[in-house]
């Protein structure tokens, strides 16, 4: 029983830890990474020469100028 409770306590502790912190970019909507995931796009570069990966819904849209 002690082994079971110790195992559960260890798993609970490990689930709370984050695997490395990533630097935020683009108004805290993006993350600085070496490679973006499929659902993200590169918008700008971070200060640490990594890519600022931002989901498309947070990227500014181009305004169409009508004349």
Automatic annotation (TrEMBL):
<dbReference type="GO" id="GO:0045087">
    <property type="term" value="P:innate immune response"/>
</dbReference>
<keyword id="KW-0929">Antimicrobial</keyword>
<dbReference type="GO" id="GO:0005576">
    <property type="term" value="C:extracellular region"/>
</dbReference>
<protein>
    <recommendedName>
        <fullName>Beta-defensin</fullName>
    </recommendedName>
</protein>
<dbReference type="Pfam" id="PF13841">
    <property type="entry name" value="Defensin_beta_2"/>
</dbReference>
<comment type="function">
    <text>Has antibacterial activity.</text>
</comment>
<dbReference type="GO" id="GO:0042742">
    <property type="term" value="P:defense response to bacterium"/>
</dbReference>
<keyword id="KW-0044">Antibiotic</keyword>
<feature type="signal peptide">
    <location>
        <begin position="1"/>
        <end position="22"/>
    </location>
</feature>
<keyword id="KW-0211">Defensin</keyword>
<dbReference type="InterPro" id="IPR050544">
    <property type="entry name" value="Beta-defensin"/>
</dbReference>
<comment type="similarity">
    <text>Belongs to the beta-defensin family.</text>
</comment>
<keyword id="KW-1015">Disulfide bond</keyword>
<keyword id="KW-0964">Secreted</keyword>
<keyword id="KW-0732">Signal</keyword>
<feature type="domain" description="Beta-defensin">
    <location>
        <begin position="24"/>
        <end position="53"/>
    </location>
</feature>
<dbReference type="InterPro" id="IPR025933">
    <property type="entry name" value="Beta_defensin_dom"/>
</dbReference>
């Amino acid at each position: 029983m002690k082994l079971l409770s110790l195992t559960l306590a260890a798993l609970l502790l490990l689930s709370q830890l984050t695997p490395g912190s990533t630097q935020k970019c683009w108004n805290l909507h993006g993350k600085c990474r070496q490679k973006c995931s499929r659902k993200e796009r590169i918008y700008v570069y971070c200060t640490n020469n990594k890519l600022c990966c931002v989901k498309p819904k947070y990227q500014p849209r181009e305004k169409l100028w009508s004349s």
